[in-house]
Amino acid sequence: MSARERIVSGMRPTGPLHLGHYFGVLDNWIKMQSAFDCFFFVADWHALTSEYADPKRIKGFVPSLVKDWISAGIDPEKCVVYQQSQIKAHAELHLYLSMVTPLGWLERNPTYKEVKQELVQKDLNTYGFLGYPVLMAADILIYRPQGVPVGQDQLPHLELTREMARRFNHLYGDFFPEPRAELTPAAKCPGLDGRKMSKSYGNSIYLSEPMDEVRPKVMSMLTDTNRLRKSDPGDPEVCNLYPYHVLLTDEAKREEIQKGCRDASWGCVDCKKLLLEGLDRFLTPMHERRAALDANPSLVADILAAGNAKARVEAEATVAAVRELIGFDF
């Protein structure tokens, strides 16, 4: 294992990434890759929990997700980028952990009912969906990391992983570390209509989206609903647009925006035009890196092949040790 502390995290390949993914997850990964021994995986088996009726789509989403990562700034020279389903040891550790995980732990998972209610159009009454925290625990514990980057809402999932590690250690001897939460700084990035940014709501700005498509989206964004005319004073704190300036506009200019909004010397159109300038500066380098990836079709496959090879060595060593601990080293 590297002298640096190890971090493990993953994303499901279910479609293109948007600004919410960047500021909620990727920005933190990009910072971590220089300070930690990072393992970042494409969680394609996890995508099956909700996309099992049409799994062929996942195959196309995998390279697209990796392109989004690399375009955003993930560097395969600094971290291990790999594909979950290509490391078969994940499935074996999932099997062993499932044998010792009490059913009540899974039924108490706070997001189990929430996600079922959110995705009512999908039949999620499956073992795979109920048991996905066990697979998630296997994904993490198989690399024996010290930390896992999570948002506040994901803390219960990580605690389940820690509980599984404790139960395994109690039954078979101290082996798995209990990874701590590396809390991801919260970044407010609402959807264009004020709701949560989501592919299913159609209210997102995607990292791969050309500026010609971004401009009309921004110009039609919801702003301060109390400001009916340009002459009406506004309040940046309740404006759907202003959180984007917090993320993309320098502090001095934000002070100007706040003053102009409150005294009505700035209109919402002025604010949107300034945001478009910031988005252009932010997205253009990503688009250029993505174009370079598109020009070399084998590059993503090469990145995954190299990452899979590194991850496989670590994962298989862990599972070999687990087999010995539980007496299944036949």
Mean pLDDT score? 92
How is the biggest beta sheet arranged? Answer: 3 strands, parallel
Give the fraction of residues assigned to helices: 40-55%
CATH superfamily label of the largest domain: HUPs
Total strands: 5
Treating each run of at least 4 consecutive H or I residues as one helix, how many helices? 14
Major sheet: arrangement of strands: 1-2-3
Second-tier CATH architecture of the largest domain: 3-Layer(aba) Sandwich
What's the structural domain tally? 2
> In terms of per-residue confidence, which ranges show pLDDT below 50 for 5 or more consecutive residues?
none
CATH top-level class of the largest domain: Alpha Beta
Structure description:
With 330 residues, the protein is mainly α. The chain folds into two domains: 6-188 and 297-326, 3-Layer(aba) Sandwich (Rossmann fold); 209-291, Tyrosyl-Transfer RNA Synthetase, CATH 1.10.240. It is 55% helix and 7% strand. The protein has helices at residues 19-32, 44-51, 56-72, 89-100, 103-107, 110-118, 127-130, 132-141, 155-172, 211-219, 242-248, 251-262, 268-294, 299-326, and strands spanning 6-11, 37-42, 80-83, 147-150, 180-183. Strand 4 (147-150), helix 9 (155-172) and strand 5 form a beta-alpha-beta unit. Helix 3 crosses helix 13 (268-294) and helix 10 (211-219) packs antiparallel against helix 13 (268-294). The longest helix is centred in the C-terminal third of the chain and has 28 residues, at 299-326. It is elongated. The chain starts with 5 loop residues before the first strand and ends with a helix.
